[in-house]
């Protein structure tokens, strides 16, 4: 009989759900985590940091294009993986250099963030570290210039600071001039590798939210063309008005 009761008790214990068992034993069931599984080969802290992203101060870019080139007064974080003592927040000086622990001044102006990472890693690898992994994060960027020309109110070369999109750039130039063609704005760019690219944008669609407002980078040239049809129509009407008020126009050869 004792054996029968023992078997029944064992069956009841197996049948009970885990939550009930935990309550009986006085333990709490840990809540199920909604975090993704760690990425193989990446420390847990690094994986969570990558998923959450870094907070950035107002007026800076969360994501810079690969063609962005570092310039004087840019503020950046420099880290060496596994060596927290080498972490620095540095500003590029007027000579285009940053001062880092152990290696001293490193010239980074004119480089992309990726190339600056490679250069700094090489500096540390020369004397101090074996296969260092350097990460560079640009917090603030300044000292950039763009050129806006063509059918705008105030064409010229404009210094810009922080995040500048195409809409903001054209606002600096006073917007489009009369008979400007805002549906075919051209942006000329020279990449880090020297490759020249050209892109076209429709400002009306950008204003309507149909297409994203693209980021303007340093040394970009923005060209706003004149609408030839509207300009020709204006010129034709202007000539007709002049002819109507010119008493000698009736003697002009046809």
How much of the polypeptide forms β-strand, as a percent range? 15-25%
Shape: elongated
Q: CATH topology of the domain at 144-229, anyone? A: Outer membrane lipoprotein wza fold like
**What gyration radius follows from the Cα positions, in whole Å?**
32 Å
Uncertain runs with pLDDT below 50, 5 residues or more? 1-63
Count of beta strands = 10
Mean pLDDT: 74
Q: From the 3D coordinates, which CATH architecture of the domain at 144-229 would you assign?
A: Roll
CATH class of the domain at 144-229: Alpha Beta
CATH superfamily of the domain at 144-229: Outer membrane lipoprotein wza domain like
Helix content: 25-40%
**Ends distance:** 128 Å
Q: How is the main sheet built?
A: 5 strands, mixed
Structural class: alpha+beta
Query: Going across the major beta sheet, what is the strand order?
Result: 7-6-10-8-9
User: What pattern of helices and strands is seen along the backbone?
Assistant: HHHEEEEHEEEHEEHEH
* DSSP summary: helix tally: 7
Q: How would you describe this protein?
A:
The protein is an alpha+beta fold. Among the domains are: 61-140, wza like domain (wza like fold); 144-229, Outer membrane lipoprotein wza domain like (Outer membrane lipoprotein wza fold like). Helix content is 30%, strand content 21%. The chain has 7 helices and 10 strands. The strands form 3 sheets. Strands 7-6-10-8-9 form a 5-stranded mixed sheet. A 3-stranded antiparallel sheet has the order 2-1-5, with helices on one face. Strand 6 (144-150) and strand 7 (156-160) form a beta hairpin. It is elongated, with a radius of gyration of 32 Å. Mean pLDDT is 74; it is low at 1-63.
